[in-house]
Fold each of these.
Amino acid sequence: MTPAPGASPSPSRGRSSGRSRQGRAAWVLALPFCLLFTVFTAWPVLSSLYMSFTDIKQRDLHSPFSVNPVGFANYAKVLADPTFRQAAFNTAYFVVVGVPLTLAVALLAALALDKGITRFRGLFRVGYYMPVVTSIVAVAVVWRFILQPDSGVLNTMLGWVGIQGPDWLGSTTWAMPSLIVMATWRNFGTAMVIFLAGLQSVPALLHEAAAIDGAGPWQRFRHITLPMLRPTILFVSVTTGIGYLQFFEEPFVMTDGGPLNSTMSMSMYTYKQFGFGNYGFASAMSYVMFVVIVALTALQFRALRSNT
Amino acid sequence: MNDNRTRSRWWLYAVLTVGLVAVVGPFVWMLLGSFKGEGELRRVPPTWWPETATLDNYTPLFSKLSFPRFFLNSVLVAAVVTLGNLVFCSMLGYALAKLEFRGKKAVFALVMGTLMVPGMVTFVPLFVLVANLGLVASYPGLILPFLVAPFGVFLMRQFILDLPDDLLDAGRVDGASELRIFRQIILPLCGPALATLGILTFLGSWNNFLWPLVVAQSEDHYTLPVALALYSTGQNNHQYGLLLAGATVIVVPVLVVFLAFQRRFIEGIASTGIK
């Protein structure tokens, strides 16, 4: 990558002194980042692992010596906790429905913008991407209005076609689907933009050749576009999956995990336990989530890589 | 055949437009709603265009609540966080891309390894740390944990890797120090990458919510999303007009910046693949 410093034409500089000089300079450049990163990221990651094996609570903040190691007790408690099980189920629901839905909407939008239309492409692209850049708190204020049972815009529109809309966020059946649709609305823009970039790399020549051979649009999509897009789909499904597994903001601002914990996610429950001061328990839960994320990511890689 | 194609193209435009209304509509409705009176907002069925436009929803943000203060807090935190990421991430990015040093592989592995760690894993100990340092309810407490991020290093390293080595060699022949080469040769060439990183970092900080909510703890340090979240769940949660005006104050500056730099935004996302 870098030419050996000895290759420098300057004869006065030897190979080793040039290299050590470069090493020193490199560390001067790396130091500020590494210091901040160690203190505020690497240390908390390790510290969290340690905490998950202790009984640390909020009141121990100022008396670190009253913290006792408890082995796997926190993990046992987490796995036996009915609310955690419910949260794990809810998170799985959110991911299993939300990720494919987001990817499908994003892929359809990308295909339409890439091949289907010739004008206003930029307008649609900017419009569809808009929710990605806006604050979830502001978005939540607007969506709570739209989803209101009696005077909300959505139920009013459903009323025009004779449908009596439910109390979306107040119903244990409808609260989660509402949040999934909202998350899709907010996130598909990112996936769409990445798909658009991926579609650019599919050679037009392949499509033309296939068309001459009599392949229809669906066949061309199935046998040319989809296989060429596989790495992009893998990448987007992994990053979307990692994000959705941690889903937190939507229930936090919309439902507070309710009604009856029906939108309580793993992140949300971890945060609640943190709020109650159960730091050890919360840390154990966050590590369970970490393990699930790593495992599912590995699984997605295998699934999407192998069945070519 | 040709007729068929035109017709299906029209259908596609129609579907895409319905989608656009569904995506952008809520923002338009928010903006229009922020100029409606409280009575009009509660009306069934809801109105679209404000019947009597009023600024009554905005004035209390400035007179009764300290929105200018929250706004400045948001700007200050986002500006410092952005500056820190630009400087520190490009420094390390350059070292990783173009310099040889002991521990390089370990540093790179460590930084990239944390990209997948969920935020909740660091959240609890980070709060304990910041509390022990006495930084709760302070600007350093809001800023320090976000001053550097692995994503920035990843982005800058990728970009600097593609810069030709001849440039560095030319500088070395002239006897320039590595730090000087970084400052005077590399950084000026990093414009596009720095712009992408700057925009994404500023946006992330502006919209950041959970950490400031926990750490700010006093009105003096609230950022805009924290203030809006607390008002929308507190005793004001039925002052719809006020909430819509607050939401507009958060969203509109970002949308203006986004529309001005949308090409950079979208290409940045497409090239790095990470928000």
Amino acid sequence: MRQRPDHNPLHLLGLICEGIWSLLVGLYITGLNFVRPGVCERYPRRDGRPDYQPQPGYRGDFALIGDPERPGGLRCIACLQCANVCPDKCIHIVPTGAGKERHPAQFLIDAGLCQYCWMCVEICPVAAITMTPDYETSTDKPTRLIRDLEHLQARGRDLPEVLRVETEGCAAEAE
Amino acid sequence: MEILKLIDNWLRGAMTTWFTGHVPLIFVDILAWIVATVVILLFVSLLALILIYLERKVAAYIQGRIGPERVGPWGLLQTVMDALKLLEKEDIVPAAADHLLHTVAPVAFFMISVLGYLVIPWEETVTIAKFVDLNVGLLYLLAISSLAVIGVLMGGWGSNNKWSLLGAMRGAAQMISYEVPMLLALICVVLQAGSLSLGVIVDQQKAMGLLTWNLWHPWLWLPLIIYLVCATAEVNRVPFDIPAAESELVAGFHTEYSGMKFAFFFLAEYANLFMVGMLFATLFLGGWASPFGYPDPLHIPGVLWLLFKAMLVVIFMMWVSWTLPRLRVDQLMSLAWKLLIPASFLSLVVVSIVMLYR
């Protein structure tokens, strides 16, 4: 019968040394990580430092970008393209006015349904809708997840300039 | 443990003055034992809470996380809240389970783990067991630690669950296998000390503090390593956590336990862990004796030295746990029977020869 390699005492000794060495290397690595500072971000902050800022491109709460020269104070022309393209059908728009005066009387987005796929932002011909880096959107009631016109408008007012430019670029590219 | 002595003396004095002629003296004895039992149970429970917190923090730091830090200062109350949560939980017994075994198992497991604490010398000539040193302490300890298998088997069998039963069978096989090399390794220490009494083993190491520890005898290095490996296996810690392998057996022998029964298993696990730390400290690191010589120049009580040393050993074991992956069942068995047992026999022979010609 052929001898199995681990029956050879020399081979066994080699295995033991290898095992001990790998244990020491492992202990060194974990020990090193033990003394290193952690990589976790605390949320919510308690140590007085500013709140966590998400990476660029983060898709959070929605916003409608304003335009003071248009009726309703919004860029949105209520063309319903976003509502149609939305795979989750979470956008509901009540249009009002005709022709150039057309604007949304009500604009509802159900954040509980949304999958943040960015398709509404891409398809919008006037770069009116976008997503903000705001990640604090959790509530204890599902109905509170439905964003109305007022909320979206308010978010649009606080929108950082960078994001506005990005959204416009996105719209131009789509065209 | 001076305080234990004090409580005992006070109780005995008070009882004899209050009840002279009314109750036989045996009741005074029984009351004193009950008080001592409560003290040690409280001590073990508190210790387990601290160890669980420590374990979570060590694991978190090793994995680059932060660990509990929200409940109480630095998250210190996290384990207390967890214990309260477990207290509130429903106590579920599976319909087809053996009701009696299922209920008794966690208590048995916990009691067995606490029994070991009786013979550890906390301070000069002070152990919990009637405040004197048991002259076969080590033998007693080994006997107790092998009893833990019963709790595991009871829990696994009584749950009537395939995972539990598999975990229990694995646990029994593992604990019995590792008992053998552990015993042989500890006999080497007994040969060195010439006594089975833990108190005597510490007494022989205390003379010059750090320098006279058993740790510095080269012929005891092999038994030391063997003991540490076997003890890790004995308390079912990673890399030997095969009885409770989460990824394979859900939670092993305590799969079907909830609420306080589960907490008992958890508590016992950490009590066992600390027991190993204390035994290691007693055998190799001078136990309660100060590392700076005898008597202690710093006047720190021996208990604190013992706890400190045991804590260091426990932290080292946690460090190893969070470094290594779990062994396979066949690897575990071949490690015990093919490697550790021959090695422990070898070290026994070596130590015997050294003792003969020293």
